[in-house]
Amino acid sequence: MLAGLLSVLLLFGGCASRAPERDGAGSDIPADLQRVPDAVPRVEPLRVGGPNKPYEVLGVRYEPHTSDVPLRERGLASWYGAKFHGKPTSSGEPYDMYAMTAAHKTMPLPSYARVRNPANGREIIVRVNDRGPFHAGRVIDLSYTAALKLGVLNGVAPVEVERLTHADIRAGLPSRPMTAAAPAVLPTVSPIVSPTPAPATTSVPAPVAAQAAAASGGFFLQLGAFRERDGALQLQRLLQREAPWLAPLVAVLDEAPWVRVQAGPWPDRGQAESMAARLAQALPLQALVVRRP
Asked: Where along the chain do its domains lie?
């Protein structure tokens, strides 16, 4: 986030007011964080105004929901840690990186949400009390402990997010797996300033040339591995939108029990590593160089 935005964003605290310095896990991390229980959903009154008022970041205007609406979406999850520990969130509550909380651009505050990592099948429930993240493709920013339990501490990762309505909470929906839930779907409010059309939700087949190249051998970038094909297609669409220079080389490969997203090939490891570095500058995505026979 640009430093010049800091004064504008202080009102929203937490994610919305982050300066560009590097964040991290810090030191003196408590033991057994994997055993920290999920947030326990309860019906809380939604805030009037304050963190639920429209706001603008990087020239884009956001309008948070102000009513108890259902919401399901897919995108990238990130996390924030020691740099913001103890500082006010958008709701005014101190940020606790060891609690099960999260930030979202438009969910009404406070909210509870179930987050699922399709790569490993893990699910968590968090209390949403902050605004952000404001990077392209990211839909939720998790606390350190939430990211640890979900298995996404190594970087951003595709996730599925489901807001739990008051009716869901009263009905005991949080105790059921996400795959069994079927709430109504409302998309996140689109930015008012120069909105970009949403990507198509239909399956996007990998280019034929990329599929053929994957079978020919060489050095490739491993971009993701998923248990479900839908997660791989989600990542492929993101790359087509955010890294169009790489998209023609991207293939979705069904290699049971995994569905892999790879790009390539390159004739030597050095060229593949150079492309991985370029990708890391464009997206918060760490690619692994692999060799296919």
From this structure: 3-180, 208-292
CATH number of the 3-180 domain: 2.40.40.10
pLDDT in tens, 190-205: 332 323 333 333 333 4
Give the tens place of pLDDT for each residue, 95-146: 999 999 999 999 999 999 999 999 899 999 999 999 999 887 789 999 999 9
Would you state the CATH architecture of domain 208-292?
Answer: 2-Layer Sandwich (3.30)
pTM: 0.57
* Nearest alpha-carbon partner for 17 in 88, 110, 79: 88
More confident residue, 132 or 206: 132
Q: Which residue would you say has higher pLDDT here, 227 or 242?
A: 242
For residue 58, what are the CA distances in angstroms to 42, 55, 82? 34, 10, 24
Please say whether the dihedral angle defined by the alpha carbons of residues 103, 105, 107 and 108, taken in this order, is positive or negative: positive
Q: Is the pLDDT of residue 29 over 60?
A: yes
